[in-house]
Design goal:
Jelly Rolls; 11 helices; 30 strands; 22% helix; six-stranded antiparallel sheet; Spore Coat Polysaccharide Biosynthesis Protein SpsA, Chain A
Length: 502
């Protein structure tokens, strides 16, 4: 049997799906960060980056490194975009990029002892897919020769939010391929201006390409304790159906460190491929604005917006009519439960707002009004002392857990679709404009057997509405704590729309 040459081997994309995206708050939040949002078109950034590495003649199915909360969301977005299913590494806790890529490398080597990894953040924009593919092919030649490749983006302006890479001597792997002179962390503005004027410095894109074996060799050399901890987490973790769940205790002991600090700034085998692919990390609202075509006054608007005598202003709304008069150089970002207004030069300070909200335990810091679950979504509509109202959407073929509540009753009114509802021993089909009453202590479940989403209004009534009053008896998504009989306990919710359902 002929063995496939490593020179023609398929590249293994590794897509990193962590991060909270707080610099794009309030649109991007911890529970739904920017990579999952259709901010710059109909598709999310995750869907776009996965599309760019979907050619089966060049790439294997993507390996997504994420957490358990996002697994179902990624799978759904792949289906919606008509993309190939991928494999998963589900981190129990984020420990930065170097440990995450160790787990990805170990996972890839199970299937291919010569695996070559293309590591990509899921939340970046690439304006020229063709230039991206050319860049990757140059990097692949260097990686298969033992190099650890990073990709430097043409520095179009003096940015203080990016690291920089200095190119050194040209190498023979292809056009714009160089040895690395040095890495520079995020500089002050005056230093950034000098680097751009020099012409030998490129923005550090956070994209990498290397042999899985070479990466692990370098990690063992420079961060041996981190490597050993990740290897134990890998070996003791569970592996099934293309999904790795590392051992929680072992992985949480890993050092939290980026690949740049752990390996790239120390290795003698670093190579930079310089490119201009229309790249942006969309790390702020001004950079979001820069990705779009402004009107004749320099304004960028998305949604139902009316501006009068405004210039260089960015307005984003997916909720309601937004109007503004006489603004210059501002951002207005509106969501159903939070509004941000700031001068563009202060837009980076949104992280301070998020930090303040977190200190006050405000749910708006991390969660949207619409909450995504494996089976669908729900959105709080109203809340009072002894009631709350939700709009629930259950996707085709999905079902809520079999559950009951001690302290509240529920009324379900179907407004669209067909629902199969179980209450006690009774199973019935409900269509639009039909309802069911679920008394406290009654075991119940909802299943969508149809091909269209089920929409229903849920009215909860009771003297306590916290989500630790959900007792799950059976759940197809594995959300039952096996260490506590049949109950899943959640911390009691503060007064307000509760942050779980189903």
């Amino acid at each position: 049997m002929k063995t496939r040459s490593s020179k023609t081997a398929l590249i293994q994309p590794v897509i990193l799906c962590g991060g909270s995206g707080t610099r794009l708050w309030p649109a991007s939040r911890k529970s739904m960060p920017k990579q999952f949002l259709p901010l710059l078109g109909k598709r999310s950034m995750l869907q776009n980056i996965t599309q760019y590495v979907s050619d089966p003649s060049q790439f294997k199915s993507a390996l997504f490194v994420t957490n358990e909360d996002f697994e179902f969301l990624i799978k759904r977005q792949l289906v919606e975009a008509g993309l190939r299913a991928g494999n998963f590494v589900l981190e129990p806790e984020g420990r930065n990029t170097a440990p995450a890529i160790v787990l990805a490398a170990l996972s890839a080597l199970r299937a291919d002892s010569q695996a070559c990894l293309l590591v990509l953040p899921s939340d970046h924009v690439i304006g020229s897919p063709a230039a991206f593919h050319d860049m990757v092919q140059v990097g692949a030649r260097a990686a298969r020769d033992g190099a650890l490749v990073t990709f430097g983006m043409k520095a179009l302006s003096a940015e203080t939010g990016y690291g920089y890479i200095q190119r050194d001597a040209p190498l023979g792997f292809g056009e714009n391929c160089y040895s690395v002179g040095r890495f520079i962390e995020k500089p002050e503005l005056s230093k950034a201006e000098q680097l751009v004027d020099d012409g030998d410095y490129y923005w550090n894109s956070g994209m990498f390409l290397f042999s899985a074996n070479r990466y692990l060799e370098e990690v063992q050399k420079f961060e041996p304790e981190m490597f050993d901890t990740c290897k134990k987490a890998f070996e003791k973790g569970s592996k099934s159906n293309g999904t790795l769940r590392p051992d929680r205790k072992a992985f949480k002991r890993s050092k939290s460190i980026s690949i740049d600090y752990a390996v790239m700034e120390k290795t003698r085998n670093a190579v930079v491929v310089a490119a201009d692919i229309g790249w942006s990390d969309v790390g702020s609202w001004p950079s979001f604005s820069d990705q779009q075509s402004p009107d004749e006054d320099g304004n960028v608007v998305q949604g139902d917006v009316l501006l009068e005598d405004c210039s260089d202003t960015c307005v984003y709304s997916n909720n309601r009519l937004i109007t503004a008069i006489g603004l210059d150089g501002h951002v207005i970002i509106d969501t159903p439960d939070a509004l941000l207004v700031a001068p563009k030069e202060r837009a980076q300070d949104v992280k301070e707002i998020v930090a303040s909200l977190q200190l006050e335990s405000r749910k708006e810091a991390d969660s949207h009004k619409k909450v995504h679950r494996p089976w669908g979504t729900y959105e709080g509509l109203d809340v009072g002392e002894s009631h709350q109202v939700k709009h629930i959407v259950v996707y085709p073929g999905e079902k809520l857990s079999l559950q009951y509540h001690h302290h509240r009753s529920e009324h379900w009114v179907v407004v669209a679709g067909t629902a199969e509802v179980t209450v006690g021993e009774t199973v019935q089909q409900l269509s639009a404009n039909q309802s069911v009453y679920i008394p406290a202590e009654a075991v119940h479940r909802l299943y969508n057997p149809g091909t269209e989403p089920v929409h229903l209004i849920e009215v909860q009534v009771g003297n306590y509405l916290g989500e630790d009053d959900i007792v799950r008896l059976e759940d197809v998504y594995g959300r039952i704590d096996n260490n506590s009989s049949s109950m899943t306990r959640i911390e009691p919710a503060k007064r307000g729309i509760s942050q779980d359902a189903g």
